[in-house]
């Protein structure tokens, strides 16, 4: 009865265990710097499972960390913020009673150690974590209300969980324990409004499953936000995600989520607005929950907007350097032609791609851009390609290769999608691990960010590749390490990268979100007043501080000084 992604993650854990990789072993590194690790074996196992379901190669797998160092909002001498272990035992008993089932399946409440571990720890990062006390699988908004009321009664942390693909420790267990609310069984598409180009669904729907369902029904529409395979609408809304399509379609913070039904920490159910395409009726409360990372409520139903499916094709072009590549992309975007994606990769990435040997070609080992074009007809695609070719050549672009047909387009795009496999090919050691991170700067500052970061990494003898959603100024580094000493150097380099991005008027995260890993940077990025306002909103919506504690909001300054 577990959903496909859950099943595959479980299979992954079993396989990893049988391969003797110490997933349950807390020897592995823990950090607080907003980084995400992988080993070659992890990547291979995960990508195999992911590609079975998604046909897409993927990213990374991580670790298990030490206990969380959560800072409560309560002042010294105040009543403890959370219930006692005894309270939590009573809460679990009450949850089991509330969701008692006569059926043969596993039921909706699980205290199975494997389930607790799978939900409390993450394959995708190194952040501190702990076991949840219990995992509950709601099937309706009413079920969520029941869970929240029990959590409030026993002062128990509530950690919403959907696809489990977030990479900054977002769904990690809290040190006191808590209730993990796994939304994956709420994965129904409720209504499709083809005429209105929107769709109403439960939050456990995966974006890829929605697009497949639309295709199967012959409806020429799709949902264009494209984060990790396995990500769901609830998690995507809650992380403020985006992906390669952001150049054309923007991010979760655009108008792709029209409304959301949310169970608040009080147990009250609200709907943020109607299904109308636009509304100026007061605050945009849908947006309050976009990027709230499960700290303000649990989303139980969403209306998403859809875009028309258009034919696409792929081209690749090489450049003398990153600056010219970035300027070329900006210039090409300003032509107003149909560019859906513009992905910058550096010379090391192209070297890694050649070394990896999965590509159909041997590429020049130069900074390059993968373009995906879209248009209503083959002629429109050809016209776009011509315009882009002319523009990029003005900026020193060379070797412009346009896919001849759909198959070749797929092959070219696969070279970009195989980023992590290719990066891992740089080190011939099965113990190599990979650590991914994301920052974003104004596009014109991207070359400086990339050049300074490359110099820094090279100076410190760190192996890496660079991939960026260049049209958005969104930069991802995939950094390799093998030993604990190398790992320390990598974590420090990532810290410098984030500070460099903030100094360039950028952000500590363009799309992955804050979780545990990036919360220490919010104050320097946003300013004290802004962070204070965020905390005041949190305290007024969730006065007991039960929802996903320890994530998103920076610890109080006093506590930071004590630390
Ligand atoms: C291979 C790979 C590639 C990736 N590529 C990208 C990319 O290109 N762009 C990008 O933006 N991200 C990317 N990511 C990160 C990840 O896919 C996104 O952060 C995604 O939006 C998370 O969705 P999820 O369903 O997995 O959420 P989860 O990981 O389950 O949860 C994320 C957060 O949302 C909260 N939450 C979940 N469900 C609910 C709910 N119903 N109500 C309230 N809160 C909820 C959780 O508490 C948590 O804080 C990638 C990850 C991987 C592994």
UniProtKB/TrEMBL annotation:
<protein>
    <submittedName>
        <fullName>Uncharacterized protein</fullName>
    </submittedName>
</protein>
């Amino acid at each position: 009865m577990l959903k496909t992604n859950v099943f595959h993650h479980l299979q992954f854990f079993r396989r990893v265990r049988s391969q003797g990789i110490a997933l349950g072993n807390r020897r592995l590194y823990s950090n607080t710097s907003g980084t995400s690790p992988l080993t070659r074996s992890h990547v291979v196992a995960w990508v195999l499972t992911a590609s079975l379901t998604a046909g897409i190669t993927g990213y990374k797998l991580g670790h298990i960390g030490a206990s969380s160092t959560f800072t409560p909002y309560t002042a010294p001498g105040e009543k403890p913020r959370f219930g006692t272990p005894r309270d939590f035992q009573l809460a679990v008993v009450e949850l089991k009673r509330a969701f008692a089932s006569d059926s043969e399946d596993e039921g909706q409440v699980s205290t199975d150690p494997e389930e607790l571990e799978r939900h409390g720890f993450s394959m995708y990062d190194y952040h501190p974590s702990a076991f949840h006390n219990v995992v509950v699988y709601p099937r309706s908004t009413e079920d969520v209300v029941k869970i929240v009321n029990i959590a409030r009664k026993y002062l128990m942390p509530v950690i919403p969980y959907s696809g489990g693909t977030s990479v900054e420790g977002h769904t990690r267990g809290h040190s006191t324990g808590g209730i993990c609310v796994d939304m994956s069984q709420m994965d129904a598409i409720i209504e499709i409004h083809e005429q209105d180009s929107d769709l109403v669904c439960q939050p456990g729907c995966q974006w890829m499953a929605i697009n497949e369902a639309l295709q199967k029904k012959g409806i020429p529409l799709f949902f264009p936000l494209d984060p990790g395979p396995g990500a769901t609408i609830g998690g995507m809304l809650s992380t403020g995600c985006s992906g390669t399509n952001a150049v054309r379609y923007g991010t979760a913070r655009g108008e792709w989520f029209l409304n959301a039904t949310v169970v608040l920490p009080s147990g009250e159910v609200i709907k943020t607005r109607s299904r109308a395409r636009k509304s100026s009726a007061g605050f945009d409360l849908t947006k309050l929950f976009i990027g709230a990372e499960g700290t303000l409520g649990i989303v139980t139903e969403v209306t998403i907007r859809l875009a028309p499916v258009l034919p696409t094709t792929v081209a690749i072009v090489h450049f003398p350097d990153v600056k010219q590549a970035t300027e070329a992309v900006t210039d090409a975007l300003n032509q107003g032609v149909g560019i859906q994606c513009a992905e910058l990769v550096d010379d090391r990435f192209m070297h890694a791609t050649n070394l990896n040997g999965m590509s159909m070609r041997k590429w020049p080992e130069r900074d390059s851009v993968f373009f995906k074009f879209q248009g209503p007809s083959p002629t429109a695609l050809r016209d776009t390609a011509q315009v882009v070719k002319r523009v990029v050549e003005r900026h020193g672009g060379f070797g412009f290769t346009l896919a001849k047909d759909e198959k070749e387009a797929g092959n070219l795009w696969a070279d970009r999608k195989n980023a992590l496999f290719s990066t891992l090919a740089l080190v011939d050691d099965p113990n190599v691990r990979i650590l991914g991170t994301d920052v974003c700067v104004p596009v014109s500052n991207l070359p400086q960010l990339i050049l300074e970061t490359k110099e820094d990494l090279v100076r410190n003898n760190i192996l890496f590749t660079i991939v960026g959603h260049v049209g958005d100024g969104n930069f991802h580094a995939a950094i390799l390490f093998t030993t604990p000493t190398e790992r320390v150097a990598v974590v420090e380099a990532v810290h410098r990268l984030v500070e460099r991005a903030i100094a360039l008027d950028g952000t500590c995260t363009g799309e992955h979100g804050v979780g545990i890993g990036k919360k220490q940077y919010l104050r320097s990025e946003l300013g004290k007043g802004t962070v204070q306002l965020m905390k005041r909103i949190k305290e007024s919506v969730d006065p007991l501080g039960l929802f996903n504690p320890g994530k998103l909001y920076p610890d109080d300054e006093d506590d930071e000084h004590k630390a």
